[in-house]
Design a protein that fits this description.
alpha/beta
């Protein structure tokens, strides 16, 4: 793409604004020089006869005409937008389209636009569009280089409305739109009648030639009835979207009416409108320029972006086209193999006529009145002074705040009149409308008027909130929550200034409903539209009412589940789908099960939850004459449905977004009933299609229900997390303890802790996601010291009950560097590799703090680490291996053991994080599922049986086992004053469940990953009890919900438990298993016969059909090292991919497997001599550059062999190469570059493709050779042997730029090789296929029982594989060959099992290819990554990020990265543990 754009710019600028003087020959030469990403399908001898099968290669000439008048009186100077000192948009568009098409048809011509259309002119100077069409046609007829009658023409018509439609009155808008369309008709008629063989693009340019589709100063409009909208921010975006859709719809109807699609050689296609995007932002600000380019260059780049967007739309079926602009340079789309033509209405199977639905929707034509069944409609005997004694008839004033749902947009519109949605039918608004009476219009106001006919404040008729008839309905269409405080202030002023209202004595009912627009746009700015900001804005509004309005009952209606709109959008109905996407993109656009959709659901739920918490805080119950009540009838409301179970559109306005009057009536009934239902018993899932019968106030409780008259108690917001300690003996040792094994709790004078965010106290007291960066160290389970044990349960607070002079604990909030953190040196985001640095910092603090007698004081140090390592394990199992993890913990403990006297180190075992998945799987928990990739991607994402989880599960066990063996080794029991004890209660953690069976998230912070204070309290109790339990009898499980009573030291065992005072003997090392005799396999497949006839297609090739086998590669294919006694001899007969020694039962090789299907297989190697090598042409030490030569050699061997039928026999060839390239890369980066590597592979495959008939090529993906570093580090013998074997991998220092570079090159070898194979260039032959076998992509380094690399899989040189390792490779390769592309196992777990071989699928017994797997080339491209992304066991499909656009994530992760510079290289997405 960059090359294409660069050349395009070079061509465009080379003319220096004088394209007319550039020779046509020069233009064509420049066009041909482009590098283009699409397959170059050249012009055939007979171009298409139908415009509906028109391919880019068929187009002979490209031109354009345009009407680009500037609208006078606008704030932005549009001449700067639509012209420059260089070329106009029309010129650039024609040239760009011609450049693109030249890749398909090098002889394409382009007819520049007429000179007068270059820039924007005033209307009087503009060249008439019809005249332009006539002139362009004349020029094409006169062009000697084309055949006007027979050549296909691509004509783009840019049409800009000469009179942009400003009015918000739907009738005027319709007339204005039709007037503009009338000016376009004669142009299209002329082209239709005069131009044969033409594909006409119609592009709406209005948005770029007016400052806004619906913007003008309404101060000059005298008709107040028409003054319904404004361009000063209230809802111009809403108007723009309605108008944009109306233009699109009107044009489509015009094209359908005129029948431009009837002729076979002519069509007009309405491409999606050009949007101003960021052009106005870029050009409308003085001096705004973020690049070094000139304004002319920047503008032309934008024009190219727009032209490419137009091209891409031509590649999209009608109905799937997207608006485009210049926000970013788009990726060029290519014609698909199935649809290689430009899309028209006909070949898109699209009709511009409204869709018809067979769904029986309930009729809109019905009465919306209601009967009031209540007999007692009397007010209170005397005006009540308490809001809790308020009867309906006591209400004197009614008001409402909100958005367009309360303003009544489209409520009474006719079903297909989308433009009329701009009309605000406030008189029928559900919560405050007062049209007619209850017998014909059901609204809350009309219901209350039956109780109090003198009610005032309700709205009538239509109009904006500023009209007189809007009264106290101050809802503003298009408003977000941030607009509600301003609405509240206007409402207060209106009530205070209304002489009919006695502000002090009249009772007021105010209904607030807001949030739909916030959710519709939250994805564009998640922080701005966060649940916290949403709630805060509502709080400001309620505070205003609470402060300024006496005697008020406020209904706060819970936001509805807006995601239901998606179903209305996807259903077969007459909804304007494009308009729905424009009005509510963050709801309509996300795909099912996407993180974007999960994030929407989470935000929606948190809007509901946060507002509930606000109301239940008691903030608005401080006076007896004011209250706020949540009315939740819409909280879980499903979408209304027809009898057939489909969404019922009759409940919606014509835009399928707003409520119709039918829904307004039902909402009014449901709200009234909610107001009469006691708190705790309110309906929260009202089905709008049900008959809703109005309830009546009860005789015993005739009041509007509040928390007080409902006898409802809000949940306590000030919970006590203290504990009781009932221990009588709290005395220290006497005389003072000299042995750690005689240490009593009261002997501990200093307490400290190391770890990650769990110990740092991240988000313990947070109530929102924006607070995730706060470290509540004073509440931390193992080291916090806020308050006392009476109200805060932490380990230090328990110890302070034994020793009031305890020091070291942390208080308050802050980082590890703050003074109040003291000896809490835990760091959020820390991994095991950061633990030694924490230990050194702790050591420094203890030695220098005057409160600590470093030599004499007993110290308790709690260490917990591992969560972040596990959360990132799947991204780089080598880096996060159990060996590395245990080594870092050992380094830390060694520092403490060497430097710290009188210390008991309590190591809390690694937590099993897999249980946390329950919190994110259960949809009832309201956990932020969209953040899983950020929080802990290797654990929280993917399916339950995914490779990632398997890897993490095994790593968790390995981590725990590594620490166990480290501690049980006795390494830290060499002194009487020091020991290390494992506290194992985290090994089996149980997720807390509520009474409803769903996870109880009250034990967790808002991210559902970190424990809340409630959870930390339980952890502290469990840790204390574990420390008292004897070693060998410690609890290895933890239940958050358990009633954990603090234990006490006993008279017989008053000490903290250690191995010695527990009389515990560490178990001996387990004996090794008996050696296995051989590494053969067993295979028992029911069907082993060949095809009934020799297949002619490689996509129907069965294992038994293979007659010949061959292999290319290096020493891994020659089987060096297969026998432990000999690392020099090439034992080709044991080669995993080509060896044929013995039988499968004794030697597992690919040929021995194939011989089970075809005993006459030929070509495999035997023994160790080259004479018996067969078709194994691999050579030790080979790199990729030797592959073409090996390919030639193999072809000649096969061609000259008398044992095979060269043309008829099916051949299987396996290629495995690249290890030596990587090992030598740093010595000659040019020779061993990624480009050269792929080029050599391509040359090799080209040879096979051109010279070998009937062949199936296995391309085995190169493994991540950095695993060699672990093997070399596993023993001193391996380190010395491999020192010179692979310098470019083994020599670089850990975390060095050289190591990162070799990892990146390794990854790019894999990515580019896969790209080559999936490019499609080897798919044209029916008897040839090359398939990537990816079992090495995520190969897990085999570990022994000590957590170290299992060297039995490797030769004595620690570089090549042993016979055992080669056998595993053969098994993995065979299984890969049978697995469909896209479902192939991408790892080999290196575990011995004689029965691991798969059998062909009886229903599809073929070797899997791209085609018979049902995949297209584009699906399996493996993207290159940055140098920081490791690849040893990375799951390619899980690499995509989810929440990277959120400012919240950037903010939190940004602070963390600053603390750990290493993490910016190796772990771009850390958890916050």
């Amino acid at each position: 793409m960059k090359v294409l754009l660069g050349l395009l710019f070079l061509w465009l600028f080379s003319s220096q604004g004088d394209a007319d003087h550039l020779e046509e020959q020069g233009k064509q030469k420049a066009l041909r020089s482009f590098q283009f990403p699409c397959d170059q399908v050249m012009l055939s001898e007979s171009p298409s006869s139908s415009v509906h099968a028109l391919r880019p290669a068929d187009v002979k000439i490209v031109t354009a005409i345009g009407s680009l008048q500037r609208t006078e009186g606008l704030g932005v100077h549009r001449e700067h937008l639509l012209q420059s000192t260089g070329k106009s948009l029309l010129e650039v568009c024609v040239e760009t389209l011609a450049a693109l098409i030249s890749s398909f048809n090098p002889s394409v011509l382009h007819q520049p636009p007429l000179p007068g259309t270059k820039g924007v002119t005033s209307e009087s100077q503009a060249i008439d569009l019809l005249h332009q069409a006539e002139e362009i046609v004349k020029l094409m007829k006169e062009n000697q280089m084309m055949d006007f009658q027979n050549d296909w023409k691509l004509i783009t018509v840019f049409f800009s409305a000469e009179n942009p439609c400003y009015s918000c009155t739907s009738t005027l808008l319709k007339n204005c739109i039709l007037d503009n369309l009338e000016k376009l008709k004669p142009v299209l008629d002329f082209l239709y009648n005069e131009v044969p063989k033409a594909f006409v693009n119609l592009v709406d340019f209005t948005e770029l030639t007016t400052s806004s589709l619906a913007c003008q100063d309404y101060n000059n409009v005298s008709d107040s009835d028409n003054n319904q909208c404004s361009c000063f921010g209230e809802h111009s975006i809403f108007n723009d979207n309605i108008l944009r859709w109306s233009y699109q719809d009107a044009w489509e109807r015009l094209l359908d009416y005129k029948g431009f699609d009837q002729k076979n050689d002519f069509t007009v296609i309405l491409q999606s409108s050009l949007q101003e995007s960021n052009l106005l932002l870029r050009l409308g600000r003085d001096g705004f320029n973020t690049t070094s380019k000139t304004p002319g260059e920047t503008l032309e780049e934008d024009y190219i972006s727009m032209a490419l967007g137009l091209w891409n739309n031509m590649m999209e079926p009608v109905g799937q086209k997207q608006p485009y602009g210049a926000t970013r340079m788009p990726q060029i789309q290519c014609p698909s193999q199935g649809s290689p033509y430009l899309f028209t209405y006909r070949n898109s199977n699209y009709s511009s006529s409204p869709e018809t639905s067979s769904t029986k929707e309930t009729s809109q034509e019905r009465s919306y009145g209601t009967n009031i069944p209540c007999f007692d409609r009397e007010p209170s005997i005397s005006i009540p002074v308490s809001v809790h004694n308020l009867k309906p008839a006591d209400i004197r004033v009614i008001a409402a705040l909100g958005d367009s749902l309360t303003a009544g947009n489209g409520a009474a519109s006719k079903p297909q009149d989308v433009l009329d949605v701009l009309t605000q039918y406030r008189g029928v608004s559900w919560s405050v409308g007062g049209n007619e009476n209850i017998s014909t219009v059901t609204t809350l106001a009309n219901i209350l008027r039956e109780f109090n006919p003198s009610l005032i404040g309700y709205s009538t008729g239509t109009g904006r909130q500023t009209t007189k008839n809007a009264a106290l309905n101050q809802a503003v269409a298009g408003d977000h929550a941030e607009g509600v405080p301003a609405q509240a202030r206007r409402l207060v002023e209106l009530m205070k200034n209304d002489t009919r209202i006695n502000m002090q004595t009249d009772w007021k009912l105010i209904t607030i409903f807001i949030g739909g627009n916030d959710l519709c746009h939250f994805c564009n700015d998640p922080v701005h539209f966060s649940p916290e900001n949403y709630t805060y804005n509502i709080q400001i509004a309620l505070d205003i009412l609470h402060r300024e309005v006496p005697r008020a009952f406020v209904n706060l209606v819970t936001i509805l589940p807006i995601v239901n709109l998606q179903e209305l959008h996807t259903s077969q109905n007459t909804c304007p789908k494009l308009l729905m996407r424009l009005l509510c993109p963050c709801v309509i656009n996300p795909k099912n099960n996407s993180n974007e959709l999960k994030k929407l659901v989470y935000f929606n739920r948190m809007y509901q939850e946060r507002t509930r918490q606000l109301v239940e805080s008691g903030r608005y119950d401080t006076t007896d004459d004011f209250t706020v009540v949540m009315q939740p009838f819409l909280m879980n409301a499903p979408i209304p449905r027809t009898e057939e179970g489909l969404p019922d559109r009759s409940y919606f306005a014509p835009d399928c977004f707003h409520f119709s009057q039918k829904s307004h009536s039902q909402a009014a009934r449901a709200l009234w009933n909610n107001m009469l239902e006691p708190l705790g018993e309110k309906t929260d899932n009202q089905q709008l299609e049900d008959e809703i019968v109005l309830k009546c106030p009860s005789e015993t409780e005739p009041f509007l229900r509040t928390y007080k008259n409902s006898n409802y108690t809000y949940p306590s917001r000030t919970l006590n997390y203290g504990s009781q300690l009932l221990c009588e003996d709290r005395s220290p040792s006497f005389p003072p303890a000299t042995s750690v094994h005689s240490l009593r709790p009261a002997d501990v004078k200093t307490i400290a802790a190391l770890g990650d965010s769990l110990t740092a106290g991240t988000a313990i007291a947070s109530d929102n996601l924006l607070d995730l960066d706060t470290e509540y160290r004073g509440l931390s389970w193992s080291i916090g010291g806020d308050a006392s044990l009476e109200n805060v349960t932490t380990l230090p607070n328990i110890f302070r009950e034994f020793s009031v002079t305890l020091v070291g604990y942390s208080t308050g909030t802050g980082s590890e560097n703050d003074a109040n953190a003291f000896l809490n040196q835990a760091v959020p985001g820390a991994q095991a590799e950061h633990l030694p640095a924490q230990a050194r910092n702790l050591l420094r603090l203890m030695k220098t703090d005057p409160r600590i007698d470093f030599s004499a004081d007993w110290k308790l140090i709690t260490v917990h680490i591992g969560g972040n390592d596990l959360c990132n394990y799947c991204k780089d199992p080598g880096h996060y291996s159990a060996v590395n993890f245990t080594g870092r913990v050992q380094e830390t403990l060694d520092i403490l053991h060497k430097e710290v006297p009188k210390a008991l180190v309590s190591v809390v075992d690694v937590m099993n994080l897999l249980h946390l998945r329950q919190l994110f799987v259960d949809s009832q928990t309201q956990c932020p599922t969209y953040m899983t990739d950020y929080l802990c991607s290797c654990v929280l994402t993917g399916e339950d049986n995914s490779l990632n989880l398997t890897m993490v599960r095994e790593a968790t066990k390995a981590y725990q086992l590594g620490i166990q063996r480290l501690v049980e080794s006795g390494r830290y029991n060499t002194r009487e004053d020091f020991t290390v004890v494992i506290q194992p209660f985290f090994q089996n953690m149980k997720i807390p469940l509520g009474q409803d069976g769903h996870p109880d998230v009250s034990y967790f912070s808002p991210d559902c990953l970190h424990p809340s204070q409630k959870g930390h309290s339980q952890l502290a109790r469990a840790l204390w009890n574990a420390m008292l339990q004897p070693v060998g009898q410690k609890t290895d499980s933890f239940d958050f919900t358990a009633d954990i009573v603090l234990d006490c030291p006993t008279q017989s065992k008053p000490f903290l438990g250690t191995y010695k005072n527990s009389n515990h003997t560490y178990p001996p090392v387990e004996p090794t298993n008996e050696p296995i005799e051989n590494w053969g396999s067993d295979l028992s497949c029911s069907e082993q016969a060949p095809s009934s006839h020799v297949p002619t297609s490689v996509h129907e090739l069965q294992p038994a059909d293979i007659k010949v086998t061959g292999a290319l590669g290096d020493s891994l294919t020659t089987a060096v090292g297969a026998k432990p006694t000999d690392v020099q001899t090439e034992l080709r007969g044991l080669s995993w991919s080509i060896g044929g020694d013995g039988t499968l039962e004794t030697y597992t090789t690919l040929p021995n497997i194939l011989k089970k299907f075809n005993p006459n297989l030929f070509g495999f190697s035997t023994g160790s001599s080259k004479e018996t090598a067969g078709f194994n042409v691999a050579e030790g030490g080979s790199t990729a550059r030797y592959m073409p030569a090996q390919a030639h050699k193999l072809v000649e061997l096969m061609r000259s062999s008398s044992e095979i039928n060269f043309k008829e026999d099916w051949k299987l060839i396996t290629v495995f190469i690249g290890g030596n390239d990587l090992c030598q890369y740093c010595l000659d980066k040019e020779t061993y570059s990624v480009q050269k590597y792929v080029k050599h592979l391509q040359d090799m495959l080209d040879i096979f493709y051109e010279e070998l008939p009937r062949v199936f090529v296995n391309m085995v993906e190169i493994l991540d050779i950095s695993g060699l570093r672990q093997i070399a580090a596993s023993s001193s013998e391996c380190a010395s042997i491999t020192k010179n074997v692979c310098p470019c991998v083994l020599d670089p220092e850990e975390n060095s730029s050289e190591l990162q570079e070799i990892k990146r090159v390794n990854r790019d070898f894999q990515a580019e090789a896969l790209q080559l194979i999936n490019s499609g260039q080897y798919d044209e032959r029916e008897d040839f296929a090359v398939v990537m076998q990816p079992f090495f992509r995520n190969a897990l380094l085999p570990l022994d029982s000590n957590g170290k690399p299992d060297l039995s899989f490797f030769a004595v040189d620690c570089f090549h594989f042993s016979e055992r390792g080669y056998a595993e490779m053969a098994v993995a390769l065979w299984n890969n060959m049978l697995e469909p592309v896209g479902e192939k196992q991408t790892y080999s777990n290196f575990t011995h099992d004689r029965s691991k071989l798969k059998c062909p699928n009886p229903e599809k017994p073929f070797l899997s290819t791209m085609r018979n797997s049902g995949f297209r080339n584009s699906v399996l491209n493996l993207e290159k990554t940055e140098p920081s992304v490791p690849y040893w066991a990375v799951i390619v499909a899980a690499v995509a990020g989810v929440l990277v656009g959120s400012l919240l994530v950037w903010f939190v992760s940004g602070r963390r990265v600053k603390r750990h510079p290493h993490n910016t290289e190796n772990n771009t997405k850390e958890t916050s543990l």
